[in-house]
Amino acid sequence: MTLTKTRVPVGSALHNEVVEWLYTEAELLDDGHEAQWHQEMVSRDIVYRVPLRQTVERARGKGFAEGTYHLDETYGSLGSRVLRNQTPYAWAEDPPSRIRHFVTNVRVAEADEDAVAVRSNLLIMRTRQEQTQPQIFAGERQDLLRREEGVLRLFRRTVLLDLTVIGTHNLAMFF
Amino acid sequence: MTTTNPQHESSAAGWTADEVLHKLDDGLPQGEIPAALFGNADVYDRELRSVFGRCWVFLGHESEIQAKGDYVLRRIGEDNFVVVRDEDGGINVLFDACRHRGVQVCRSDSGNTSHFRCPYHGWTYNTKGNLVGAPLWRNAFGGMSKEGNGLSPAAQVASYHGLIFATLDATAPSLEEYLGGMTWYLDLVFGLNSDGIEVLGPPQRFVIDANWKSGADNFSGDDYHLGTLHRSVWEIGAFPVPFRENMLGYHVQASPGHSLSFSMAPTEDEPGPKFFGYPEDLAATFDTSRISEHQLNVARRSRVFVGNVFPNFSILALPMTEDGSSHPPTGILTIRTWQPKGPGQVEVWNWFCAYKNMSPEQKERTYRAGLGTFSMGGSFEMDDTEPWITVSRTGRSVAAEVLDFSLNYQMGMPGVGIAKQVDDWPGPGIAYWTRYEEGVQRNLFSFYSRMMQAAPGQWPDLRFPE
Ligand code: FES
Ligand SMILES: [Fe+2]
After folding, report:
1. Which of B247, B289, B313, B385 is 20 to 30 A away from residue A42, measured at CA?
2. pLDDT tens per residue across span B167-211
3. What is the mean pLDDT of residues A69-78?
4. Are B281 and B293 in contact (CB under 8 A)?
5. Would residue B459 count as lying in a domain?
């Protein structure tokens, strides 16, 4: 499945449905309801990736190194992360960060097999403990949402970060 | 005139590096280390010169630059160096600074090229670092020799098991001499079979507001923190050896500065992971073609290997899984550097490695298991960075100076805990059984202190006194 299908217009029924879905997802993640997100919004076949990026010459493209990642998750490994955060020993997010997902520039296209291809810009602001300076991630999400028994679930997610060196001490949150 | 109290004066201005180092020397025999070591700016400036400006520093693995012209941009201390394979297959480590005005000539993290051209006026260097041209050469520089105007190479470059190191100090002993007893231990991880290892892609890089020595300290053999900081990994089934059992094994001061730790089964027949958890069909290829029977036996009984080559190169091999419900733990091998980036910042470079003869499936499995556990997004490692940030906060605090605050590194000293030095250990260095022991870190810091105070051209002893 590709992202090259014709875009549906902003404000169309499908676009609205996708935006609703993305807002709901952001709300669950920002409010710390990861388990509910995992359970209700994520496909059991998910491939969820944050590829590794390098600074390279223009002729060599955008610098994403093939087959290498910061995160390369399945439904099970995402579940492990959710489970881990529920233990009283997940120090990386306990006390929890304040995390806010800003989702914009949502572009929706119909794809094959009951799926919708979505590109969106993502900005995550994360503050920890008494920090006033946030940790910031900006990037693009390339998602495929698939209709499974009537509901849209996240089937593929690739997060293309604008950073080569990640300016944060861990990736204990979800993109 | 009032007389000034020199002691008061110096504390108002903050401790100098010398003062911190004297406190380190005074405290170490009692297992005490001044907290200021992890945040003092004067100490940090001295480290860039006396440690990173002199020691052998890890830069990358040969498998990253296989073809002629392949290069990666790496760091010694805070300075960039191009690590490049030239047209004759040799490896050069070149200071990334144009001879003309000092401009950066390599602006990518990696690539393949026949030359590096400076963007300022166009001086061009080949992959050996020689100046090969400049625009309008005859008018501009006709008569000047190109020789002696090349990129500055590191003073010495050498590899061990494909691991590329360089030093800026022409008086440094050879790499093998510098590694000393550590070679025995590097052999038993990297030389387990005749194929050796390769890296699985470029390194992850991320920045922590912590001091680089926290990484070196931790990987020298801080096993005790696993039970608390990493308790979650047992709850989710990511690691197969219970905490208490995992504390069994050896701490080894391989040679001055270099330390390591083994979690090891008491006997060969013990159930549970062998060979760091690598799958049996791979372990069947582990042999004595490049290592001794003793080394093979140590590796066979080992569940975890963790070590640090002074100053900032660390290695970790152990059984892990990113998803205990679908995959049992498997052996992973990560190598990393703790790149200094100021007294309160470190950039971690993290590579995953595999034995070259692993099947694609085994490589995929070890990569996923490593990524899901010992990486910035991994269940094991993501907790490590939290305490290190506060170690460096304590290290730069006024309170730590005013209160003369020192850190406790006494575990395993005579009368403290159960660890005992052993005399039947087959490898080089000073070995202790069990891992309730902090001599490995005291070894790190005592060599560190000698390196920091060594006069130019002089090198501290690279062997323990007999
Ligand atoms: S500074 Fe490089 S050519 Fe002038
Ligand atoms: Fe740890």
Report:
1. B385
2. 999 999 999 999 999 999 999 999 999 999 999 999 999 999 999
3. 96
4. no
5. no
Residue B47 lies inside a defined structural domain of this protein: no
pLDDT score of A4: 55
For B212-238, how does the pLDDT look when each residue is reduced to its tens digit (9 = 90+)?
999 999 999 999 999 999 999 898 888
| Residue showing tokens 């499995």 | B365
Return the CATH number at B116: 2.102.10.10
Rounded alpha-carbon distances, angstroms, from residue A86 to A73, A90, B325 = 18, 7, 16
State the pLDDT confidence band at B8, using cuts at 50, 70 and 90.
very low
Residue with tokens 């291809």, as numbered in its chain? A117
B49 inside domain: no
Q: Helix (H, G, I), strand (E, B), or coil: what is residue A88? A: coil
Rg over CA atoms, chain A: 16
Please give the radius of gyration of chain B, using alpha carbons only, rounded to the nearest integer: 23
pLDDT digits (tens, 9 = 90+) for B414-454: 999 999 999 999 999 999 999 999 999 999 999 999 999 99
Contacts of B322 in chain A (CB under 8 A): 77, 80
Mutate to test the interface with A, among B109, B110, B232 (most CBs of A within 10 A): B232
Q: How many CA atoms lie within 13 A of B359 on its CB side?
A: 9
B380 CA from centroid of ligand 2 (Å): 7
* Nearest-by-Cβ selection for B382 from A54, A164, A172: A172
Is residue B207 domain-shared with residue B63, that is, in the same domain? no
Q: Are residues B226 and B140 in the same domain?
A: no
User: Which residue type is seen at B320?
Assistant: M
Domain range enclosing B112? 57-160
Please provide the DSSP assignment of B313-352 as one string: EEEEEEEE-S-TTT---EEEEEEEEEEE-STT-EEEEEEE
Read off the CATH number of the domain in which B445 is found.
3.90.380.10
| ipTM tops the 0.85 cut | yes
Window from A93-97, B92-96, B151-155, B440-444 with minimum mean pLDDT: A93-97
Rounded-to-integer distance, Cα B16 and Cα B293, Å: 49
Domain end residue (candidates: B126, B160, B194): B160
Per DSSP, chain A holds a count of helices (H) and strands (E) of: 3, 7
Establish if B403 belongs to a structural domain.
Answer: yes
Render pLDDT for B135-155 as a digit per residue (tens, 0 to 9): 999 999 999 999 999 999 999
**B327 lies in the same domain as B442:** yes
